[in-house]
Amino acid sequence: MKFRMSMMLASMGLFAFGLGAQEHLKSLDKNGLDNTISPRQDFYNHVNKKWMESHPLSPEYSRYGSFNILSDSSEHRVRRIVTGLAATNPAKGTDAYKIANLYELGMDSIRRNREGAAPIRKKLAKIENARPEEMTDLFRYMQRHESSPLFSMGFQEDLGNSKQYAMYVSGVGLGLGDRDYYLLNDKSNREIRKAYTTLIEKQMQLAGYSKKDARRISANVMKIETALADSVWTREQSRDYSKQYNIRTLDQVKELYPNLPIREMIGDLGITAPETVIVTELNTVKQADNLMKSLTDREKKDYYLWEIVSGAAPYLSDAFSDASFEFNKVMSGVQQQRPRWKKALANVDGIMGEGIGRLYVEKYFPESSKVYMEGLVENLRNALGKHIIRLPWMSDDTKVAAMKKLNAITVKIGYPDKWRDYSLLNVDPALSYYENMENAGEWALDRYLEKWGKPVDRSEWAMTPQTVNAYYSPINNEIVFPAGILQAPFYDPASSDAENYGGIGVVIGHELTHGFDDQGRNFDEEGNMRNWWTEEDAEKFKNLTNGLVAQFNEIEVLPGIHANGTYTLGENIADQGGLRVAHTAWIDSQKQKGVDINSEAAKIDGLDPSQVFYMNYANLWATNVRDAEKERLTKLDPHSLGVNRVNVSLRNIEPFLKAFGIKEGDKMFRPAEERVIIW
Length: 679
Description:
By secondary structure, the chain is of the alpha+beta class. It has three domains: 64-116 and 317-364, no CATH class; 130-305, Neutral endopeptidase, domain 2 (Orthogonal Bundle); 366-419 and 458-679, Collagenase (Catalytic Domain) (3-Layer(aba) Sandwich). It has helices at 43-54, 66-87, 95-107, 109-115, 121-128, 135-146, 180-183, 187-206, 211-231, 250-256, 262-268, 282-294, 297-312, 318-332, 340-364, 367-390, 396-408, 433-449, 497-514, 535-553, 569-593, 609-620, 627-636, 642-650, 654-659; strands at 11-12, 63-65, 152-158, 161-170, 246-249, 276-279, 410-414, 471-473, 478-482, 556-558, 561-562, 623-625. Strands 1-8-9-7 form a four-stranded mixed sheet, covered by helices on one side. Strands 3-4-6-5 form a four-stranded mixed sheet. A two-stranded antiparallel sheet has the order 2-12. Strand 10 and strand 11 (561-562) form a beta hairpin. Helix 16 runs antiparallel to helix 17 (396-408). The longest helix is centred in the middle third of the chain and has 25 residues, at 340-364.
């Protein structure tokens, strides 16, 4: 069972050292600044253009920047760990044995090419051989063991009571990822649909179907997915959690969706049925119900066949991967497949990420980094508190509630306190790669189902320690910083305070601010969806955010394609909040050390420390991006493109304008009356 909720209850982020005058640049390369471009005209390219020119996109990448560099570094570290395990000849049944063998199975292309589609033929035959009277049972089988055709169901923290789980009924993920790919008829979307159709036909032929049958399957898949897309909410609509909290009894659900065996599916999971479920997208689930009634058995079977093949493709022969790559070339502009070892490593990491993470932190994450981060987080928390208290637009009542939530935010740094137990996971090298990944999926599902009826375990992490990212979870009211992100240019013990606060400090501030963005503000200090705002303050907040939406909407990403200020609002609020809060925290830290940031002695390699702070922030987002990827990200990514995370966000921030002497007439200048400051 693959459960997809339309809600993403973890907002992805990006996504001090007392050396005084002796501090030096480490994360930021002064020689990389392009002085032919004035920071007053184009700050992003002033900081990053030389780096971008010296790091042209290789065929493997559709975009490449700081995150990619750190991810590559993390991948190479993990690779050394994993290949090192194999060399130790680990005992059968140990985590090391399982990690090493999963990786080896992923690397054994000779075996997978020899097997071809053999590992999935029994499943395909099961679908093909189903009689009319068995179609409902087949649907339930698919929901329980293979995928979530037409709609999805599963449990997650209850939005209204985050300490317990609730059952959710939701829409289904689309093969192309977004409704617009199916519904818009411009040249770009037509080409993507054609590429997707070609992918289905190629992989179905690789699975043993004739060209004629593959074309029929492709046509039926597109018919069904287009019908589903027509009912799916827009990206903007999906940001409103309150409209996704529709509590219904099982009897009501049966009445609303008579063709969907929801009660029976809960029974298939082997868990106690709840009295109520939460329907996240009423119309989308209704469309699934309509299709369940109107589709022929042949159409349903073709849709299920593609679900099997598309899910299995990454674990089958190179021919399947080659077909996927041809599709990805159209979607993102990438020119070369990722190396086999990276794909194999990613799959192992997806299954046994914490097993690898435990070894990663032992080798690469010193305790001193965790201690430093804990102190830095508290500095940032205090700085955000100052901002809240000083807000001119917010009433005292709402400020009290905001401070209560801020002080309740829990912090996770580096790695979990309790590591995941993999003892029941079975890895058998005698089985195919696909069969082992299927067994891993069943193990993960069993582990997931064990949680039902128990209190929510808030000690769990949604990312592995080696991940180069961070997140805020509104339903847990927590911020999480894996060990992987605690590297330059985000954090380096040898870097200046200005760099570290402009790097990891901004990341911390970003995640803290997510607790108060357009989505996070709807959750209280315990992670429950509850309105703690006065009506007047909520209206003032909305007016401010409308101004920020307008600033990003006016950005033309590509000819005729504009940024989506509504869809990216949460991340844009967090970027701005992170910048402002981190700058305040940095100034406070320097005052505590007795450092006059405006003195000649405080300069860092000849640069004013305030300038270094903002330069390192811009440095985080140095990225080359293909046009196809820009278009894709604009549709699917709630984060703005790097250039806009820098140039658009910074134009609102007065200390930045002062640091570089930006004045009226400069392109980076924004008149005071047009600046939007929220947190």
